Every structure is written in C-alpha cells, then in structure tokens.
C-alpha cells in the first residue's frame, strides 16, 4: 500500500530522529509558537477563531468541511514508493507544474506540500492581510539589520510565505502583474535562452482567462486559459482621483501589463465572482481526481536524496503524519518550495556554498552559490493623506461585518471582494533613475484608504500587524487619524540595488534559515524612495485630490523627532522606521548559464552539476523585475512544464489524455 516508513517523528516532543542525521534535532520554540494576532473585529474574530481551531485540533479537524479536499488517488492510504516526478511545494509554480505534467495520464506525479488545503475563508479577498498571522503562513523573520525595520517588533521585518496547498497565492493580495518587456529582455541577454519577453508572454497567455473590460482585443491578453484575471468590481473615488492625477502628470491610463506604454491603471487581480483564485483553486482543485496525481498536503520534505558519486537526484525524504518516508523518482525531483525553502532544502541535501555548508556540518555534494543572491521589493506605507470628505475610503469598520460576509457568500461582489484595499497600480521612472531605457524604478500602489483603515476600537488592525509594526510606533505616528478617511499610495522599489542573501541556521530541516535583506544599503535605493515620495505628493496636489481635501499627514516617529517634517532626511528616517516588504524575494536559486558565477540553475532550470534535479519557483528569477511575483511564478510553472515535457519526450511518445 505504499508504506515506506523508515522511522517515526515524535511530534509531541518536537524531536526528529532520522538515520542520516546524528542525534535529536529540536524544532525551535519560535516555530512551535505560531504567532497569532488578537483580532477584535467580530467577523474577523469569528473567522480567525475558526481557522485557529481548525489548525489546533490535532486528530479531528473540526472545520474540515470548509476545507478543499484532495482525496488520494486509487484509494491509496499513502503515496507509492516511486513516481515519475516528485514535486516539493504546491505553490504558485508547483501547482501549475503538477497540473500540466499530469495532463498526460502515463506520467505519475507526487506533489508534497507542507500546508493544508484552502478553506472557504481564504477565498475572501478583503481578508488578504489576515492570513499572514495564521498557520497558513510560514512565520519567517528577516535577521535584525540596524537602521531598517526600526518600527517593527524587535526591529525585524516579517517575511511570511504561504503554507498551504496553493502556497503564497493563498495568502497574497492577488495583484496580477507580469513585468515590463525590458525586464525579460535583460534576463535573456544574460545567457538565459528562452526567457525573452516574447518567450514568456506566451506562457502568461497560456494560463490566462482575462475578463478585462476595454482590453478584449489586446494581443497581449487571452481568454483561452483557466486563470481568471479581472478588475475589482467596486471602486472608490480615490481610484478615480489617482488615475486622473496620473493623467495630469503625464501618466496615461493604460493596461499596465501591455508592453507598449508605461502608465497607471486599475488593479488587475486573480479574483472571480468576488473570490480568490489561487494557483491551487485554478490548477489543482479541478484536476484532483486524476489517478496519476497524488496531492499530499501536510507533508514536509526534509531532504532531496542525491547520489554523491554520480551526483544524481533519485528521491525525496518527507515527513507525513509523524512518519518519515521516502519516494524515489523514475525521472526527476523538482523543487517548487519557494525562494526561501528551496535553497534551504538544496543546502540540507548537500548542494550549496562549500564553506558555509561545511561550517554547519553538511557534506558537500555540489558547491554552488545557493542563497547567495536575494533581491526583494520593499515599500513604504507611511505617506498618508487625510481627506475632508467622509465615506470616501474603504474602511474595515464599515465593510467587514457579518451581514456583508453573508451577502458576499450569496453574491460575491461587494466591498469584501477588494484585495485588501488595493485599487490602482502606476509605473513611474523617477528623476534619479539613470537607466537608459524606459524602465520604471517605482511602482505606486494606490489604496482605497491606508494602514489606518482597519483601526478603531473594533478594528482588526490586520494590515499593521501583518507588517509587525509596534503599537507604540503606530499610535505615536498615526493614532490621531486611526480609522478615519485617508488616501495613500505605497511606493514599491522595483529595481533595488541593495542585495541580500540567506543561509542555514543549522542542519535541522525544521529550523528557519537566516534571512538577510540588506535593505537600503545602497544610497541609490534611498534616493529613489525619496523621489517617489515627492511624486506622490505631486499627485496629491493635483485638482482631483485637492477636491477631496487631500492633505499630507505629518507622522511623528521617535527616531526622527529631531528632523524637520517633510525634509528629505525626515523621509529617509521614516522609511527606515516603516520599512515594509511586499514579499517578492527572488534570485536565491538564481538562473544563469554555467559561466555566471552566481547561477544555481541553468536556463532550463536544472541545478548546475546535479542530474535529475530542477528548481521551478520564483527563486530562479535572476534579477529584479517590475512585477509582483505571483503571475511570474505561475508563468515559470507553465514554461517549466513545457521544457520538462520536451526533455522527456512526453508529448512525442505518449498521447495526451487530459486537457
Ligand atoms: C503577504 C503576501 C502578499 C503578496 N501579494 C502578492 C500579490 O498581490 N501579487 C503577486 O503577484 N504576488 C504577491 N505576493 C508574492 C507571491 O504570491 C509569491 O512570490 C509567489 O506566490 C511565490 O510563488 P512560488 O511558487 O515561488 O512559492 P510559493 O507559492 O510560496 O510555494 C512554495 C510552497 O512550498 C511549500 N513548502 C515549502 N517548504 C516545503 C517543504 N519542506 N515540504 C513541502 N512543502 C514545502 C510551501 O508551503 C508553499 O506552499 C505576495 C506575497 C505575500 C507573502
């Protein structure tokens, strides 16, 4: 029946005994104590209680009926000992890849996922900020870096990642962006054949089922795929003002995902009928009855098995229901565990920088710069404008209540279908950019409110808590405008010059790796932010925002008290206090030709120097792109599926049985 138990994992004592790791390895306390916020909003309270109880009941999942089901194929109780492919991680990329590979019924895939399936509540777009503080997210923190994230708990930035069937696409804000053409042209020009804009657009379109009023005839959009990409049905006057102000300052209103023009647009989202469309919902749930696809939730891969002599991957070790098992592969092991867990697993399995791995006691099979490059997109949520009209912005206190949730359940489209308040996207090239091409250095994210919009006595405060902003910092800066009508635009730094890295804490697969953002270490990044803040102020000074009485709010931060409000120095200090990430960590398993000293995988995503092992997730993106990374993740899954099918002649020798 597929039982391949080797040894048990004692969950009670959180000790992990495996024959190949000496001694007992303790699961660190900080991981056991999953952080949970106290939500005050009654609707949110009810919902978070449901999720919490669901996760805490060990043997009986009380709320299982709300969860998506992935029944094992063929009545199996546990997976078989061997598959054609084992994919680790059912996230944005892994879900697409598993779905595409098993279109051919002769190909068997085991998809090992640490998290649980989604539930009804993760479908609610307005709840996007809440899931970061539940067990649907890995609770990673960046290492302390002096001079950034100063206003956050323990002065550390929070780096949650999705822990679910569907991965981070289950907890994200559902914004759909593809990157500018130059991003992909530059990646291709660095020796990455097959990754030019024309190459990747094919795969974006392959997934997409666009329903974007006004862009039906665009050659860059497709209605033939299965991934819904839509506009948010409801909008506030603040979005109109943002787009109008943009036009006044020379930014046309455009399809911001089309290549020809750079401009502003209504946010495009992976939401349909008011419900989140995660990679799992779209690509896995509809295929869950395929007999050749075993989707295994709540299973943690702990090691990739690699023959040290032939340097060939032949299987995966994973823990499921306290039992350590192995599954071997006839073809390949594919790592889709995301930009933090994939490099961690590579290193735990003997693939990584020699010196570092030796220092934590791991035998090196292949010396590669795993984890040595890490870029992220950081933003600044603290430029907030008060509005002198009421009921203009999206306020949690007015939207997220039990009658609205009930109405959403019936009809879908109301304020609850807002992706956490995001309404508009704008690409700008600031005056400090020295890029010779028309490549934006900042994305502006226009919010139908701001980080004060979920406050007040009964507010959940989920957004500020999702960023882990300390209460005293938040209250000192914004206490007097909490829960009032406001507008804000978050500037997101698209092309960071500062580069981070990650490394193992130790060789325990249950430990979190050490994450170093190295944010704002390059002064050009600070200058770009300040230029972006000035541009947002210019937008707010245009007539459409002035009609609403937009006025910048002079927030006070302890570290900045000696600086004059609105000076460049003040904004730098504010930015260093409220440094927030938009969670687009990339490049930790960087793609590049063998000649690239920083490359981990080749342009076909095969790990350099190790056979039958690929990485297929956003960690392969080698350099910053002008995009949030969910759609690129799914595109990578699509493209990898084709590369793998070609490599193994899967189309040629076997008839495609499913579509
Ligand atoms: C709060 C938040 C908001 C975001 N908002 C947006 C947005 O609006 N738009 C956008 O485009 N992007 C957004 N992103 C980023 C985007 O969602 C991610 O970059 C993208 O989903 C990553 O895809 P991936 O396939 O690389 O990894 P993931 O989707 O993270 O998948 C990795 C999977 O591997 C699993 N896994 C990890 N380790 C193991 C293991 N050892 N064994 C088994 N399974 C394992 C994980 O549980 C996870 O399911 C957001 C991210 C966050 C955190």
Automatic annotation (TrEMBL):
Species the sequence originates in: Parnassius apollo (Apollo butterfly)
Q: What keywords tag this UniProt record?
A: FAD, Flavoprotein, Signal
User: What is the name listed in the Swiss-Prot or TrEMBL entry for this protein?
Assistant: (apollo) hypothetical protein
Q: Name one GO molecular function term.
A: oxidoreductase activity, acting on CH-OH group of donors
Question: Could you say which protein family the record assigns here?
Answer: Belongs to the GMC oxidoreductase family.
Q: Which residues form the Glucose-methanol-choline oxidoreductase N-terminal domain?
A: 162-185, 338-352
What's one Pfam family here?
GMC_oxred_C
Superkingdom of this protein's organism = Eukaryota
Q: What is the lineage of its organism?
A: Eukaryota, Metazoa, Ecdysozoa, Arthropoda, Hexapoda
Tell me if 4Fe-4S is a UniProt keyword of this record: no
């Amino acid at each position: 029946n597929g039982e391949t138990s080797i040894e048990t994992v004692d969950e009670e004592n959180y000790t992990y005994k495996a024959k190949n790791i000496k001694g007992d390895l303790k699961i660190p306390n900080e991981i056991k104590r999953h952080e949970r916020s106290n939500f005050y909003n009654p609707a949110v309270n009810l919902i978070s209680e449901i999720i919490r109880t669901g996760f805490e009941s060990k043997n009986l999942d009380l709320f299982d009926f709300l969860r998506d089901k992935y029944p094992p194929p063929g009545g199996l109780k546990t997976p078989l000992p061997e598959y054609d492919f084992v994919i680790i991680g059912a996230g944005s990329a892994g879900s697409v890849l598993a779905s595409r590979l098993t279109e051919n019924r002769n190909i068997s895939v085991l998809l090992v996922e640490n998290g649980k399936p989604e539930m009804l509540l993760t479908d609610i777009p307005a709840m996007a900020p809440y899931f970061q503080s539940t067990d649907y997210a890995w609770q990673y923190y960046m290492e302390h870096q002096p001079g950034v994230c100063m206003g956050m708990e323990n002065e550390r930035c929070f780096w949650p990642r999705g822990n679910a069937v569907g991965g981070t696409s289950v907890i994200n804000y559902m914004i759909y962006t593809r990157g500018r053409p130059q991003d992909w042209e530059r990646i291709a020009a660095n020796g990455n054949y097959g990754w030019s804009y024309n190459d990747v657009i094919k795969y974006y379109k392959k997934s997409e089922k666009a329903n974007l009023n006004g862009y039906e005839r665009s050659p860059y959009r497709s209605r033939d795929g299965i991934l819904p990409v839509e506009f948010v049905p409801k909008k506030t006057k603040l979005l109109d003002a943002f787009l109008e102000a943009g036009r006044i300052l020379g930014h046309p209103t455009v399809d911001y995902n089309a290549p020809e023009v750079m401009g502003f647009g209504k946010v495009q989202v992976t939401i349909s009928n008011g419900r989140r469309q995660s990679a799992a919902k779209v690509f896995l749930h509809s295929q869950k009855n395929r007999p050749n696809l075993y989707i295994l939730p709540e299973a943690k891969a702990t090691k990739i098995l690699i023959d040290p002599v032939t340097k060939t991957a032949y299987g995966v070790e994973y823990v499921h229901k306290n039992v350590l098992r192995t599954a071997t592969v006839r073809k390949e092991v594919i790592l889709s565990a995301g930009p933090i867990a994939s490099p961690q697993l590579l290193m735990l399995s003997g693939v990584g920088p020699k010196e570092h791995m030796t220092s934590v006691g791991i035998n090196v099979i292949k010396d590669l710069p795993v984890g040595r490059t890490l870029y992220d997109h950081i933003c600044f949520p603290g430029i907030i404008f008060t509005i002198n009209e009421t009921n203009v912005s999206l306020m949690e206190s007015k939207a997220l209540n039990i009658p609205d949730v009930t109405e959403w359940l019936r009809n879908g489209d109301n304020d609850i279908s807002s992706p956490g308040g995001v309404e508009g996207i704008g690409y700008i090239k600031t005056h400090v950019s020295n890029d010779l091409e028309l490549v934006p250095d900042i994305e502006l994210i226009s919010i139908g409110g701001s980080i004060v919009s979920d406050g007040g006595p009964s507010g959940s405060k989920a957004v500020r808590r999702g960023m882990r902003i300390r209460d005293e910092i938040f209250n000192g800066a914004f206490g007097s405008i909490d829960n009032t009508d406001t507008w804000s635009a978050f500037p997101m730094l698209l092309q960071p010059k500062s580069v981070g890295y990650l490394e193992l804490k130790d060789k325990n697969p249950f430990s979190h790796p050490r994450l170093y953002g190295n944010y704002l270490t390059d002064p050009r990044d600070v200058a770009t932010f300040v230029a972006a803040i000035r541009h947002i102020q210019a937008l707010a000074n245009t007539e459409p925002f002035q009609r609403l009485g937009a006025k910048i709010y002079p927030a006070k931060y302890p570290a900045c008290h000696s600086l004059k409000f609105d000076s460049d120095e003040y904004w730098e200090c504010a930015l260093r206090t409220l440094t927030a990430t938009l969670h687009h960590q990339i490049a930790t398993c960087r793609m590049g030709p063998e000649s690239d000293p920083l490359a981990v995988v080749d342009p076909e995503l095969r790990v350099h120097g190790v056979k039958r092992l690929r990485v297929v997730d956003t960690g392969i993106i080698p350099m910053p792109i002008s995009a949030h990374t969910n759609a690129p993740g799914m595109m990578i899954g699509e493209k990898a599926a084709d590369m793998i099918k070609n490599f193994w002649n899967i189309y040629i020798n076997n008839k495609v049985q499913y579509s």
